[in-house]
């Protein structure tokens, strides 16, 4: 915008005002200063750059200097300082307001997009403004750290700078939602989401990132976003500590919990007898969890629980005796492992199911 010619309307009365100041020694009046602020706002709204506007004002000022005495020159410079300061204040005020309005529009669009609100056709039209073509499939990655992040946080700026520096615009939308970092990218550009996950994990001091599956259309963004949120929720309940989770790898868990009552019955019928053990069911459920998480290798499971192999083996025998299911038997193992997953998802034995 700096190269555009500045219309005379933005300097109307400026030269005459300077002449009066030089002749009388007065300062600019309140009305004059407010008029300058208003012109600054109008100039900003018209897309005129502040540098070009200041140069034009200084050019008019220079035309007045040759005929001035030393005292008048001092008065002139004082008036110019006041005038340009007021003009710039108005220009900056308009710019700030425009930025806030743009942020509000962007935030409203993001809320509508991620919550599935608004007419889908209208949403697709609005998406073009932010670089998204919702006729394509998109996938969403969500990063969650130890503390909430917002758009102005250094972590957000760091991730955004890294991603845009690596991939440019490329129809990518980076934002925050409910204290989490969110990246929306075309479904065929998995490299963008993987890179985002790496950067977000580092910027949030080891936060966890979940990536939803690609889905087509405006509703597909919502679907992928919800998959990513559900993956983070599952990771919390199942104590999954992988830095990057993919919803596609966790599809078995929603299937297992689709019939909650059936899962609750399996947990109680299979693991319920462990409540009678000394110390309750929790230590023995943790034993099974470590056993299955370590690939059913007793030595590795014992190490994870800081137990000797002998003590760990004794626990497995105790589980077999109480439940009638042998963790070493492939058929029994499937039932026990499914029940343990259900217990973790339902919060048993701490919560009644």
Name the features.
CdaR-like_regulators, CdaR_GGDEF, 353 residues, PucR_C-HTH_sf, 3 domains, Helix-turn-helix domain-containing protein, six-stranded mixed β-sheet, alpha+beta, Alpha-Beta Plaits
How does this model look, in words?
- Residues 116-234 form the CdaR GGDEF-like domain.
- The protein has 353 residues and is α+β, with helices and mostly antiparallel strands.
- Helices cover 61% and strands 8% of the residues.
- The chain has helices at 14-24, 30-45, 50-64, 70-115, 120-129, 154-167, 190-203, 217-238, 252-257, 260-271, 282-293, 298-304, 309-323, 330-346; strands spanning 137-144, 173-177, 180-186, 208-211, 215-216, 244-246.
- Strands 1, 2, 3, 4, 5 and 6 form a six-stranded mixed sheet that branches.
- A hairpin with a 2-residue loop joins strand 2 (173-177) and strand 3 (180-186).
- Helix 1 (14-24) crosses helix 3.
- The longest helix has 46 residues, at 70-115.
What is the secondary structure topology, with strand pairs?
Blueprint: H1 14-24, H2 30-45, H3 50-64, H4 70-115, H5 120-129, E1 137-144, H6 154-167, E2 173-177, E3 180-186, H7 190-203, E4 208-211, E5 215-216, H8 217-238, E6 244-246, H9 252-257, H10 260-271, H11 282-293, H12 298-304, H13 309-323, H14 330-346
Parallel strand pairs: 4-6
Antiparallel strand pairs: 1-3, 1-4, 1-5, 2-3
Helix pairs in contact: 1-3, 1-4, 2-4, 3-4, 6-7, 10-14, 11-12, 11-14, 12-13
């Amino acid at each position: 915008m700096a190269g555009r010619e500045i219309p005379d309307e933005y300097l109307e009365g400026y030269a005459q005002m300077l002449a009066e100041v030089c002749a009388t020694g007065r300062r600019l009046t309140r009305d004059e200063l407010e008029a300058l602020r208003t012109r600054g706002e109008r100039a900003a709204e018209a897309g005129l750059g502040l540098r070009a506007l200041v140069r034009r004002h200084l050019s008019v000022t220079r035309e007045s200097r040759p005929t001035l005495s030393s005292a008048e020159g001092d008065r002139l410079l004082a008036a110019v300082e006041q005038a340009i300061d007021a003009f710039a204040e108005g220009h900056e005020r308009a710019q700030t307001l425009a930025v806030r309005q743009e942020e509000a529009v962007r935030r409203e669009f993001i809320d509508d997009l991620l919550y599935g609100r608004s007419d889908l056709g209208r949403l697709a039209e609005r998406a073009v403004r932010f670089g998204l073509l919702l006729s394509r499939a998109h996938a969403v990655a969500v990063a969650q750290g130890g503390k909430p992040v917002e758009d102005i946080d250094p972590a957000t700026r760091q991730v955004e700078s890294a991603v845009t520096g690596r991939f440019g615009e490329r129809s990518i939308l980076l934002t925050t939602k409910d204290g989490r970092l969110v990246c929306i990218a075309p479904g065929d550009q998995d490299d963008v989401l993987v890179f985002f996950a790496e950067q977000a994990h580092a910027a949030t001091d080891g936060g966890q990132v979940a990536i939803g599956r690609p889905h087509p259309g405006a509703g597909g963004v919502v679907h992928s976003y919800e998959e990513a949120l559900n993956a983070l929720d599952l990771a919390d309940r199942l104590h999954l500590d992988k830095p990057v989770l993919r919803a596609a790898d966790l599809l078995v868990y929603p299937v297992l919990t689709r019939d909650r009552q059936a899962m609750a019955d399996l947990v109680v019928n299979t693991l319920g007898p462990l409540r009678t053990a000394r110390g309750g069911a929790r230590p023995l459920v943790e034993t099974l969890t470590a056993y299955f998480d370590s690939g059913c290798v007793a030595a590795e499971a014992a190490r994870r629980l800081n137990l000797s192999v002998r003590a760990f083996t004794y626990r497995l025998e105790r589980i077999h005796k109480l439940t009638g299911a042998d963790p070493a038997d492939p058929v029994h193992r499937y039932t026990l492992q499914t029940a343990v997953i259900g217990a973790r998802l339902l919060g048993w034995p701490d919560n009644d199911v």
